[in-house]
Amino acid sequence: MVQLELYFKLLKCTLERIGGEMFRTKFIATVTDTGEGLQVTCPDIENLYILVKDKSELEGQCRRIFSEMSELSPDSLDLLFNFN
């Protein structure tokens, strides 16, 4: 997890130096209906556990959490969801 955090910080600094607005980070997440809610996993982010109760909140909650974990602006992320 520490290596991933260092990688994202380095990536963020590099993008800021070369005009980060031109680049967007794309995450592909798998969404599984568990009966308790929608569970979101992503192979690009270890130890990620998101459980969303309402499908209408899926993108907003994921965008916020992915942003916090990658230390990128929520507006610089592209999220693609694969539903199981």
Describe it.
The mean pLDDT is 83. Strands 3-2-1-4 form a 4-stranded mixed sheet, with helices on one face. By secondary structure, it is α+β, with helices and mostly antiparallel strands. It starts with a helix and ends with a strand. Strand 2 (38-41) and strand 3 (50-52) form a beta hairpin. It is built from 2 helices and 4 strands; from the N terminus they run αβββαβ.
Structural class: alpha+beta
Shape: elongated
Q: If helices are DSSP runs of H or I spanning 4 or more residues, what is the number of helices?
A: 2
* Helix content bin: 25-40%
Number of strands: 4
Taken in chain order, the helices and strands follow as: HEEEHE
Q: What's the arrangement of strands in the largest beta sheet? A: 3-2-1-4
- Strand fraction equals 25-35%
Query: How widely separated are the two ends?
Result: 26 Å
Uncertain runs are none
Largest sheet: 4 strands, mixed
Report mean pLDDT, rounded to a whole number. 83
Radius of gyration: 14 Å
